[in-house]
């Protein structure tokens, strides 16, 4: 995704999130395995499996690429939506064990959403490693239940 698209996405977001969001995006983009494509999906930058790779797409919406990881600058936090930690218990457990090694703040997360309320307290390196752990083929297999 081009810097112009990130700027456009950040246009109406609180200025306090801009630098952290850009750094997070570039960290993920540099580490995510080949085959994922970054697009705006559901109104936010998202790394997806393109329909050219997985024509079945996402079951919830016809002709929609399979989502994997999305980034959002919300009013009160930056969110990383990582479908892999929702679908793969071992990956979630790895992340939950690694997080305290990188941060002194409490992990703030839902099923697939990791939230950061302080832009200076984002474990970029850990999130880059997390992004690198699942290939396109592994994600498709997990999504299909195998």
Provide structural commentary.
- The structure is a single chain.
- The protein has 146 residues and is α+β, with helices and mostly antiparallel strands.
- Helices cover 40% and strands 19% of the residues.
- The protein contains 6 helices and 5 strands, in the order H-H-E-E-E-E-H-H-E-H-H.
- The protein has helices at residues 3-10, 18-31, 83-87, 89-102, 124-132, 136-143; strands at residues 37-41, 44-49, 66-73, 78-82, 113-116.
- Strands 1-2-3-4-5 form a 5-stranded antiparallel beta sheet.
- Helix 2 runs parallel beside helix 5.
- It is globular.
Short overview:
The chain has 6 helices and 5 strands, in the order H-H-E-E-E-E-H-H-E-H-H. With 146 residues, the chain is of the alpha+beta class.
Write the layout of secondary structure elements.
Elements (H helix, E strand, L loop, with lengths): L2 H8 L7 H14 L5 E5 L2 E6 L16 E8 L4 E5 H5 L1 H14 L10 E4 L7 H9 L3 H8 L3
Antiparallel strand pairs: 1-2, 2-3, 3-4, 4-5
Any idea what the radius of gyration is?
Answer: 15 Å
**Overall geometry:** globular
Major beta sheet summary: 5 strands, antiparallel
The residue fraction in helices comes out at 25-40%
Output the strand order for the largest sheet.
1-2-3-4-5
Instruction: Note the total helix count.
Output: 6
Low-confidence stretches: none
Q: What is the mean pLDDT?
A: 92
Q: State the order of secondary-structure elements, H for helix, E for strand.
A: HHEEEEHHEHH
Number of strands: 5
Q: What structural category arises from helix and sheet content?
A: alpha+beta
Report the sheet-strand fraction: 15-25%
Distance between the termini: 30 Å
């Amino acid at each position: 995704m081009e810097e112009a698209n990130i700027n456009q996405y950040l246009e109406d977001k609180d200025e306090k999130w801009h630098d952290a969001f850009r750094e997070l995006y570039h960290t993920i983009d540099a580490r995510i395995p080949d085959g994922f494509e970054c697009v705006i999906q559901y109104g936010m930058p998202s790394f997806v499996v393109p329909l050219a790779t997985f024509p079945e797409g996402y079951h919830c919406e016809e002709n929609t690429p399979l989502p994997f990881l999305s980034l959002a600058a919300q009013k009160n936090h930056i969110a990383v939506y990582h479908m892999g930690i929702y679908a793969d218990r071992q990956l979630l457990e790895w992340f939950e064990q690694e997080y305290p090694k990188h941060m002194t703040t409490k992990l703030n997360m839902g099923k697939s959403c990791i939230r950061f309320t302080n832009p200076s307290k984002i474990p970029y390196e850990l999130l880059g490693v997390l992004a690198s752990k699942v290939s396109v083929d592994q994600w498709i297999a997990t999504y299909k239940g195998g």
